[in-house]
Amino acid sequence: MRFRLTPRETSFYDMFAASADNIVTGSKLLMELLGADTPARGEIAERMRAAEHAGDDATHAIFHQLNSSFITPFDREDIYNLASSLDDIMDFMEEAVDLVVLYKVEELPKGVDQQIEVLARAAELTAEAMPNLRTMDSLTEYWIEINRLENQADQIHRKLLAHLFSGKYDAIEVLKLKQIVDVLEEAADAFEHVANTVETIAVKES
């Protein structure tokens, strides 16, 4: 019996790239949310939900390919971790938008725009990095910058929490807004998880 090693070996790269491109779509929807009035937010949430479903489909496709491939381009565990972390990013971004709509938040606190800008930049860098998994070129700069962005996101998150607990908001509003900014922080953490997995893969392949 002759095993067909290609295109199975290379299809993972295309699927990771597609998953990362979908995250860029999600980050753009987050940016749209910032300038949207309350009625428009529901429509943005619908589009984000569709993007999250597309992300789920991409993740399931990677898992299916992983289970049906005899040879993979790098360790199976790393493929699983990378796909899962990319999926987590979309889940957190979709959750944040959904919470804004469900909680009927009229005005997001100052600083959320900075959180989203960091996520948008991280999404762009991640989408640019995924095709480079084929050659392992130019990835060091990627994970260094993602780690820097995650540190920046931590600082923004801490300032937001201080602002929320300053006494400006009532207790119920604090609970609502804190959950939203916490989920956005989790998205930033998930970007770092992706970068850390890419670094692990690169070290193993070097």
Automatic annotation (TrEMBL):
- Domain of life of the source: Bacteria
Q: Which InterPro entries match?
A: PhoU-like_sf (IPR038078), Put_Phosphate_transp_reg (IPR018445), UPF0111_domain (IPR052912)
Q: Which family does it belong to?
A: Belongs to the UPF0111 family.
Q: What is this protein called?
A: DUF47 domain-containing protein
What is the source species? Answer: Streptomyces pratens
